[in-house]
């Protein structure tokens, strides 16, 4: 009996988290992970956030169908939610399971392990818009079991005009607090030192639950009831980073349950008219003051920023407002995305589209700025002492010990090899031309 599987993941960290959880369940039931070309079952966890992501999802399905025609190919994820018929029409697909059924996928695979590839594809669907209960998947451990990802929130109620996510993920829903603590405690017993709390709209955690429950309260519970050394937050909206959350991060830089000094904040545009048209609930002034406050309270914090380029109506003046804002703010790096119109969203119907050549040129400008910001941030850390979680004693490319700092810097140790999965104090000594950060134990 061939119990081999493979998972191909496209898109965001939430997708990555869910894919790892599905794999973890299958392995607990006796399945073995292998290459897609050899697997009896190949799961493709798709993305639909842009037209390019949807195209890449289709390409992945066709590629596996050609390379491994005997495999049962199961497609899930956001593209399976948005356009299941398109995926089902691809020759070789055995099953299309949308996001409302993703938490059942491992059991569906196991239940049908002796079935031949289906023709036509089996459709496993629900109504994502009516999902009100958090659909549980276990925490997923990354690499050498030093870090884990735990999805504690799913869905989004914001309906920004460019975004397909609320239609693909459904309404916001949260993992119950006791379940969060149970998962964190279990990961701590497994030896995991860092947990990344993830969600589609993490700042909305708890809003669907009864009682005074929010992101800050679950962080408070984690500190007192779970033994995880440090917690990292995934992307969080600017209007949801309040004084209380910042106070917790500032005051929890030591001891168990400390919160990493790393915030990834979506800006999308630095122009107020574009922000309003995007249906974003803040303006450039709020964003600017927030970044300056974070830098003041947490001088070494990594501050990442998402920027969406070429939204309809973004003329040269609007783009320059974004560029100028980011040039003058002490951010650490940028994630730059070209606007991609998605059918079913309001922005799909906006008339004043930006020329794709102009979008490409503007993205290039911002990516160059990102490199400058990253170099400046790394350079500012020379001489500073950082807490680093050692992920490997011998990096496969450099041969040096490598770890991740609390403020999201990959650090290489050239003169020592501390054990993997240990937290050490490191002084940053130099920065190479290729942005490699070098440190030494202190």
Give a verbal description of the structure:
The protein is of the alpha/beta class and 442 residues long. Helix content is 33%, strand content 24%. It is built from 13 helices and 20 strands. The protein has a six-stranded parallel sheet, sandwiched between helices. α9 (243-251) links the parallel β11 and β12 (258-259). α7 packs across α8 and α12 runs parallel beside α13.
What structural class should be given to the helix and strand makeup? alpha/beta
Low-confidence stretches: none
Strand arrangement across the biggest beta sheet:
2-1-3-4-5-6
Oligomer: single chain
Give a short account of the largest sheet. 6 strands, parallel
Question: Which range does the strand content fall in?
Answer: 15-25%
Classify the helix fraction into a percent range. Answer: 25-40%
Shape: globular
The counted number of beta strands is 20
Total DSSP helices? 13
Q: How far apart are the termini?
A: 53 Å
What is the gyration radius calculated from CA atoms? 22 Å
Mean pLDDT, all residues:
94
């Amino acid at each position: 009996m061939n119990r081999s599987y493979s998972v191909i993941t496209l898109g965001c960290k939430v997708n990555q988290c869910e894919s790892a959880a599905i794999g973890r369940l299958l392995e607990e039931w006796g399945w073995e992970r292998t290459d897609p070309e050899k697997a009896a079952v190949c799961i493709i966890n798709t993305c639909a956030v842009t037209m390019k992501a949807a195209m890449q999802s289709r390409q992945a399905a066709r590629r596996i169908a050609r390379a491994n025609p005997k495999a049962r190919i199961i497609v899930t994820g956001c593209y399976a939610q948005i356009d299941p018929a398109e995926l089902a029409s691809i020759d070789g697909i055995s099953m299309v399971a949308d996001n409302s059924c993703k938490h059942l996928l491992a059991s569906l695979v196991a239940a049908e392990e002796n079935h031949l590839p289906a023709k036509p594809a089996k459709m496993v669907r629900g109504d994502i818009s009516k999902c009100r209960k958090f659909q549980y998947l276990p925490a997923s451990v990354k690499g050498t079991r030093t870090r884990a990802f735990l999805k504690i929130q799913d869905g989004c109620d914001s309906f920004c005009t460019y975004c397909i996510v609320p239609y693909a993920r459904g309404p916001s829903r949260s993992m119950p607090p006791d379940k969060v603590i149970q998962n964190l405690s279990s990961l701590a017993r497994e030896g995991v030192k860092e947990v990344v709390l993830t969600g589609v709209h993490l700042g909305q955690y708890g809003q669907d639950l009864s009682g005074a429950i929010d992101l800050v309260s679950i962080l408070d519970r984690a500190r007192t009831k779970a033994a995880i050394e440090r917690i990292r937050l995934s992307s969080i909206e600017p209007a949801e980073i309040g004084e209380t959350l910042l106070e917790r991060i500032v005051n929890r830089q030591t001891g168990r349950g400390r919160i990493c000094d790393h915030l990834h904040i979506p800006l999308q545009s630095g122009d107020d008219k574009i922000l309003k048209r995007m249906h974003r609930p803040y303006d450039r002034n709020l964003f600017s003051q927030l970044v300056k406050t974070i830098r003041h309270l947490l001088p070494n914090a990594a501050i990442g920023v998402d920027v969406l380029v070429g939204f309809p109506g973004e003329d040269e003046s609007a783009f320059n407002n974004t560029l100028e804002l980011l040039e003058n703010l002490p951010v650490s790096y940028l994630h730059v995305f070209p606007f991609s119109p998605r059918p079913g969203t309001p922005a799909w119907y906006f008339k004043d589209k930006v020329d794709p050549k102009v979008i490409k040129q503007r993205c290039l400008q911002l990516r160059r700025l990102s490199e400058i910001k990253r170099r400046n941030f790394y350079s500012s850390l020379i001489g500073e002492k950082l807490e680093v979680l050692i992920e490997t004693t011998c990096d496969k490319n450099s041969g040096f010990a490598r770890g991740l700092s609390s403020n999201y810097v990959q650090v290489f140790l050239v003169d020592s090899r501390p054990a993997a999965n240990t937290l050490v104090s490191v002084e940053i000594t130099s920065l190479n031309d290729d942005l490699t950060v070098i440190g030494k134990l202190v």
